[in-house]
Amino acid sequence: MRILGLLLFLTVTIGFSQTNDEKQIKAIYNAALTDGRSYDWLNYLSNQIGGRLSGSVQAQQAVEYTKKQMDSLGLDKVWLQPVMVPKWVRGAPEFAYIENQPGMTNNVPICALGGSVATPGVGIKADIIEVEGIEQLKKLGRSKIAGKIVFFNRPMDPTLIKTFEAYSGCVDQRYSGAEEAAKLGAVGVIVRSMNLRLDDFPHTGSMSYGDLPVESRIPAAAISTNGAELLSTTLKLNPKVKFFFRQSCKQYEDVESFNVIGEIKGSVHPDEIIVVSGHLDSWDLGDGSHDDGAGVVQSMEVLRLMKVNGYKPERTIRAVLFMNEENGLRGGNKYAEVATSKKENHIFALESDAGGFTPRGFSFDSSDANFERLLSWKTLFEPYLVHLFEKGHSGADIGPLKNKQVVLAGLVPDSQRYFDHHHAQNDTFEHVNKRELELGAATMASLVYLFDKYGILPN
């Protein structure tokens, strides 16, 4: 009888807890969808400030704006965390054309890759050679590469439903292509944009020269997918065509910037810290609405939703708006460095850096025990059509917090349209749907609520 009574008590208790969780999560979604602030915040970030490249005036304006907004929420603490960041400037608009023969040219859209050196002032014109990737480049060797512009033309794989896998499958040519081509004597690099559709928007992104000395570095640019198709077809018809491009970008000394942090202190376990985050910086071609203005305003909205619903967290909840994710990860590394020096106990960190589209679920980096318990929470999200709970990558900025104990997670929105806009001129406010953005914020707040209530399991 005592065993039966205990089982009955546990069943009733679990059922009561589940009911309370359902009510709390419903209240979170209701508040986000009827009186949300995230869309208005994003409107200001995007349309009044614009692209927020690390080290820029706009990045500093974003720091000041988001701090002011978090100050207005009545949080327990809001502060700026200094961090030194790179300052790379694009300069005058880039220009490029394909030359079939002297006097016969076709202009194509390009943009310098972030961190690239400039061309000479008069530009570069040279023979061009197309390769599928870095391995093919190395097989061709110096004799076929020296003195030429290398055209990396491996597309994203359209058969992969998870588009971030398609991105991962070809981004190495953007990041390391110039370094490897320079070692073989190339004079420049053109890379097919990381984009699944055909359009005229070149997509920028970070690149690296590795340990190459400054004098050995060569200019690198992205070409739009339509431009890449035209260039590839032209080369097949006439392998002797030349390519011309000009860009005037420049790398300056590092400058000081800031992570912006807002906090609600925990009422029961204040030393256990939960982080919700996005990154303030963006590339400069568009206004960075999806990457990652959406994650910034969603993270701020998580704290606001806690306040407006009168929820008093047991654990300390922080919104961390990181600086310099795009071309250095300095903000994420600085936050982790300071947390380690202060011996802070982070138990959970959630990042939104995959656009403001409809939320589908989460990707978790956790122990098996914690993941099994996470799966038991899945039914709470199913009424909101959030079905995906999987193990995998969490986020770049929270990655430095990883240890044996902390649970890391990334919000997973529907990704089918994300790479249409990623790092491009059309990453702009009008491409963010208000309701989808608000659903993402509510989904994040709901998961934070559950981690606050139940904590994590020890390893």
Rounded to an integer in angstroms, the radius of gyration calculated over CA atoms is 24 Å
Order of secondary-structure elements: HHHEEEEEHHEHHEEHEEEHEHEEHEEHH
CATH superfamily of the largest domain: Zn peptidases
At CATH's second level, what is the architecture of the largest domain? 3-Layer(aba) Sandwich
The total tally of domains equals 2
User: What's the helical proportion of residues?
Assistant: 25-40%
Oligomeric description of these chains: single chain
How does the helix and strand content classify structurally?
alpha/beta
Arithmetic mean pLDDT:
95
Describe the protein.
With 459 residues, the protein is an alpha/beta fold. The chain has two domains: 24-88 and 253-454, Aminopeptidase (3-Layer(aba) Sandwich); 92-248, 3-Layer(bba) Sandwich (Glucose Oxidase, domain 1). The protein is built from 13 helices and 16 strands. It has helices spanning 2-35, 38-49, 57-71, 134-140, 142-145, 163-168, 171-183, 225-237, 289-308, 330-341, 368-381, 418-421, 434-454; strands at residues 77-89, 95-101, 104-107, 110-112, 124-131, 149-152, 188-192, 220-223, 242-246, 250-264, 269-279, 315-322, 345-351, 359-365, 388-391, 407-413. The strands form two sheets. Strands 1-10-12-11-13-16-14-15 form an eight-stranded mixed sheet, with helices on both faces. Helix 9 (289-308) packs across helix 13. The two termini are 34 Å apart.
